[in-house]
Amino acid sequence: MRKFLIGITASVLITGCAEFPGVHKIDIPQGNVVSQEMVNQLKPGMTRNQVRFVMGTPLITDTFSPDRWDYIYSMEKGGETRTQEGVSLYFSGDQLSRISGDYRPVPPQ
C-alpha cells in the first residue's frame, strides 16, 4: 500500500510541474518566413526563378496544380495560441500572374 501511495503522489507531482509558473517554454516556428518586404518585391510577370530568389523555395508545391506555390508560416510563442500566415502565388506558364493570402504587395509611396 505504501508503494502505491508513493507512486500516485509522484505521478501527481510530476504532472503538476507541466504548468508550473516560471517554466520556460520555447518558441516553435515552422514553415517559410514571409515578410511584407519580401512580398513587396514581387511583380506580375516575374519568372519562377526570380520569385524563388525573393521568396525562397515554397513549402508546398501542389502536384495537381503545379502553377500554384504556397508559402505557409506558423509560430507558437511559449505555449500561447499558434498563429499562421500564408501566401499563395499563381503562375501562367513561367510567369507570376497573381498573389493571394495574408500579405499583398503594397505600392511604394
Give a quick summary of the entry.
By secondary structure, the chain is α+β, with helices and mostly antiparallel strands. The protein has helices at 2-16, 36-40, 48-55; strands at 28-31, 60-61, 68-76, 83-92, 95-101. Strands 1, 2, 3, 4 and 5 form a 5-stranded antiparallel beta sheet that branches.
List keywords for this structure.
alpha+beta, 26% helix
Would you kindly provide a written description of the structure presented here, covering whatever features stand out?
It is a single chain. The chain has 109 residues and is an alpha+beta fold. It has one domain: Beta-lactamase Inhibitory Protein, Chain:B, domain 1 (2-Layer Sandwich). The protein is built from three helices and five strands. The chain has helices spanning 2-16, 36-40, 48-55, and strands spanning 28-31, 60-61, 68-76, 83-92, 95-101. It comes from Marinobacterium aestuarii. Keywords: Cell outer membrane, Lipoprotein, Membrane, Palmitate, Signal.
CATH class reads: Alpha Beta
N-C termini distance: 76 Å
The largest sheet is: 5 strands, antiparallel
What is the helix fraction of residues, given as a range?
25-40%
CATH architecture: 2-Layer Sandwich
What count of structural domains? 1
Gross morphology: elongated
* CATH domain topology: Beta-lactamase Inhibitory Protein, Chain:B, domain 1
Strand content: 25-35%
Continuous helix count:
3
Structural classification: alpha+beta
Give the low-confidence spans.
none
User: What is the count of β-strands?
Assistant: 5
